[in-house]
Design goal:
2 helices
Length: about 55
């Protein structure tokens, strides 16, 4: 994977860069990113449930 570079600028400019980046990805790369987001979301939801049960 490429090195991560932090971008600073107006939100419109950053959004445009992000859209161009996603369009340049292959279908498989897009799917991998989606699965990573789903995995993180599930982990966060599970962590919240476990944390509230302990109290």
């Amino acid at each position: 994977m490429k090195d991560i570079i932090l971008n600073f600028g107006p939100p419109e400019e950053l959004e445009t860069k992000r859209i161009l980046e996603v369009r340049s990805l292959s279908y498989l790369e897009r799917l991998e990113r989606l699965m990573a987001i789903i995995e993180v979301s599930h982990t966060l939801n599970t962590a919240k449930i476990i944390q509230t049960k302990k109290r």
